[in-house]
Structures are given as C-alpha cells and as structure tokens.
Design goal:
The protein is mainly alpha-helical and 337 residues long. 65% of the residues lie in helices and 1% in strands.
Length: 337
C-alpha cells in the first residue's frame, strides 16, 4: 500500500529536513490541520529560532475555523498549553476551558487573565475546581474579576470544596491483649442482648458489642470475620469504623455496600474514596455519589466517572445536595455533545 503524500511530508519534517520544517512552520504544506498543528507546536518550542518564530507566528494567525475542531477533540496537552498561552481568541479559549481532559494547571494559568464572560465558563468546571482548588485562587488574582465570579468563589468555598477532616486521636492507652479482650467480652454478656448476633468470634449481639470499651472494639477490628466487620463498620466512633477498612481485606461487594451505606460515619466514606483501586470500580464510585453522607467535594470529583445515563439520573435525584445535582446536569449536557 502506497504511503500518502501527507505521511511522506511528515516523515521529512520529523527526520530534521530544515527546508520542510520551514515550510511546515509557515503552514504552507498540504497537510491536514490535525497533523500539521502538532508539528508546528513542536517546532515553536524548538532550538532553531527562525523556524520557531515562523511556527509561533503561523499558530497565532491560524484561521479559527481550522484550529477549533482540533482543540475541541484532538489536541494533546502540549497544543492545549500553547494556545492557552499564546491565543486570546475567545472561541479558542472557550474550547480549551470545556475540554474535560484539559490539564488543571492550564485552567489555573488561564484563570488569571480570563475576561468576565469566560470566567463564567470556567466556573462551570466544578469537577476541575474540586480537583485543583488553586483555580479559584488564580481567579482571585485576575484583575478583571467580576462581582459574579467573586460571589461564586465564595459559594464554592462554602459548599463545594471538601473541608479537611481529621479523626481525633484517642487518649494514650495501653494495647489490649487477648486475655483482657476475653474478660471484656465475658463482662459484655451481662448486657441486655440487642441487634443481630455475631457468632464467629465474640458470640455477642450487636448491642453487646457496642457496649464494649473503645480499646476492645479497636482490638476486634483486626482480622474481624465478615459479620463482625459489618457491625464495626457502623460503629459511631470513627477510629473503630475506619480501623475495619485499614485492618481487613474487604471484598468488592463489601466495599460497594459500605460506599452506599447511610449508617456509616463520614470518615468511613472518606477512607473508601481515598483508595484508588476502589473508586476506580464504577459501582463503588456511583454508590459514593448517591450516598448523601459522602462529602460533597468527593462526590463532585467522582461525577466525571459516570455514564451519560447515570448523570441524568443523578441530576434528577432529590436525595442529594443541590450543588451535586446541578453539576451532574452540566456534565450530562457536556457529555451529550
């Protein structure tokens, strides 16, 4: 099969043929824009000052109708960064802002110089803002910042961005040994039975287990059988509940059930969200998003993983926060395009 003329020209340019590189830099070679523009971006960053200057000039003056489809669908990070730095055309900048995969660092750089109408486009990218809150700081440094943008930044900081949560440490206590644990379990049998029965390790009911002191419950989390894990995951003490996750190998089914469980403390959901191998599972991410106890910042960040169908479902749900619902609807409209 014969090589296309474009392929042959590209090979000449990549091989270092200076004459062809000059022609490519000037944009006069018969090469499709999706192939030529990345070459020109590479040349614009090259060491040959004459070629780099011609490439930068061509890219700055390129017909918007030629470069727009490329930026919307095909441009890589290097090309997106070049046009973000070198272009001021609002149509091209908007295309960069709307790219779901645009590096967040590019959005932060753009934020410092966007005019008010494009600031509003950037503010729609709640997924990116949650991942990279420095975007809001960059917007605040923008000398053209509008009063609308300032209000939205304040709202995002109040309702959208996750607050740092820490689990308060227990007072210094001695590690409980098995003999002490056995004595505590025996004493717990005197408590009134309540809740489901845990037959594998303690032979206590859920109510009796909850009556154990915190050090005993922490001791039980290590290597706990499944029934006991289920009880301790719902413990009201965050350290006990999170210890179940850190000290046991949970099955995929348990992780998904935990992510959707409205009876667990918030710290458990945060611990699940921190495990990449778990949130990369679609059903776990979806369960976290649908759980109203999941911190809003985590839920918004995970929205980008959902399908168009599920985004529409989340956008119509009345059981989740308004900020999450509105973000789901925006992503739904973007993904539909």
């Amino acid at each position: 099969m014969a090589e296309s003329p474009s392929f042959a020209l590209l090979e000449q340019i990549r091989s270092g043929n200076r004459q062809f590189q000059l022609l490519a830099a000037e944009g006069v070679l018969p090469i499709p824009p999706e192939d030529l523009i990345p070459i020109q971006v590479d040349l614009a960053h090259g060491d040959d000052e004459e070629i780099a200057g011609k490439a930068r000039h061509s890219l700055r003056t390129v017909d918007v109708r030629l470069v727009l489809p490329f930026l919307e669908r095909q441009a890589g990070a290097e090309a997106l960064a070049f046009f973000a730095e070198e272009s001021s055309h609002p149509v091209l900048i908007e295309a960069i802002l709307r790219r779901r995969d645009v590096p967040r660092s590019i959005l932060a750089r753009l934020a410092r110089r966007l005019p008010p109408d494009l600031q509003e486009i950037l503010l729609l990218r709640q997924d990116a803002i949650v991942e990279e809150p420095v975007i809001l700081e960059a917007l605040e440094e923008n000398p053209q910042i509008s009063s609308y943008t300032q209000r939205r930044i304040a709202e995002y900081r109040e309702h959208l961005l996750p607050r740092e949560r820490t689990i308060a440490p227990l007072p210094e206590i001695e590690e409980m040994d098995e003999a002490a644990l056995a004595r505590e379990i025996e004493a717990a049998r005197e408590l009134p039975p309540a809740g489901e029965f845990e037959p594998e390790r303690t032979q206590l009911t859920e109510g009796q287990i909850r009556g154990l002191p915190i050090p005993a419950r922490l001791k039980l989390t290590r290597g706990a059988p499944r029934g006991l894990r289920s009880i301790l995951l719902r413990d009201s003490n965050p350290q006990v509940a999170v210890s179940v996750i850190t000290n046991n190998n949970l099955s995929d089914q348990e992780v998904e059930q935990t992510a959707g469980n409205r009876a667990v403390v918030e710290e458990v959901l945060m611990a699940v969200a921190k495990r990449r191998e778990w949130v990369n599972k679609y059903n776990v991410a979806k369960a976290l998003i649908q759980n109203p106890r999941t911190p809003i910042g985590i839920s918004v960040r995970l929205l980008t993983k959902l399908s168009v169908k599920d985004l529409r479902e989340i956008g119509r749900s009345r059981n989740i926060p308004d900020a999450l619902r509105s973000t789901a609807l925006r992503l739904y409209r973007i993904k539909q395009k």
